[in-house]
Amino acid sequence: MAYISDSQYYNNNNVSPTNENWGSYQYVSLSDVINNFMLINVGDDKAINNVKRYEVMFHAKRGIQELHYDALRSFKKVEINLGDSLKLVMPPDYVNYVRISINVDGILYPMHENRQTQSAVAYLQDNNNNILFDNEGNIITGTSVLDIKTGEMQQYFGPGDYDGCWGWCWDSNWYFGYQVGGRYGLDPETANQNPTFTVNKEAGVIDFSSGARNHLIVIEYISDGLENGNDENVSVHKFAEAFIYAYVKWAIFSNKFGIQEYMIRRAKDEKAKELRNAKIRLSNIHPSRLIMALRGQGKIIK
Fold this sequence. Notes:
- The protein has 302 residues and is α+β, with helices and mostly antiparallel strands.
- The protein has helices spanning 6-11, 30-41, 53-72, 145-151, 241-255, 261-282, 287-294, and strands spanning 27-29, 75-81, 87-89, 94-104, 107-110, 112-113, 122-123, 141-142, 154-155, 166-170, 173-176, 196-200, 205-208, 216-223, 235-237.
- Strand 10 (166-170) and strand 11 form a beta hairpin.
- The chain starts with 5 loop residues before the first helix and ends in an 8-residue tail after the last helix.
């Protein structure tokens, strides 16, 4: 692993961007991980005597993904102003959301997922409601009526608590995105005055209710850690470096012919042990922080 001088760390030798190396000592690059693994574990006198570098890279990337999903939980934040389409395209490295908030007067309010379907694939039909097919026998699809109605939202001005809100007007009746379950027949999942959202994984977008129109949305999500396929930017936290080595060793043993079963089992146990250690180290739990939290136990709640 190459080390850098203090001047290069703090101001990148006055080359823009000057903050490029801040916090870099926490991580080990993917190339360094692969080089270290080949140096320590591959050779004529080692358990692995013949393996291709691209195989090690493949297993290392899979290990990084598993680490991010299970232990590291690498969070990223994106803010975007939501337009009239009420859709937010998922970031390219999106795996799952952690929290989605709406910015109202400089304060972030959490939003809740509405699990009721708000979008669908529309099958085209003839006048007799028969499904239409193309020349290859595939169903012809069109724009969903739900999506059309979303685009036809109007702003309501009138009596009631929904004055100024965006909604749908259907047969002279008004409907609003977060009205369902919000009052009558109270559902705790939707009992929130903030706008709601629905994750459409197939379309790669997140749909929002009308109250989020023209607001700043902040999405915190889990990344797969592969930096959009740019291997030069992929890195591993030093607390989890040993897990990647153990994972790659286990993966190679599991797919290599002639490896004895006890060696595979030992590598699997080592991988599980290093994953537990990585979780503990990355949990960032300190006794002083626990003490400060436990001090509140003596507080009398009236």
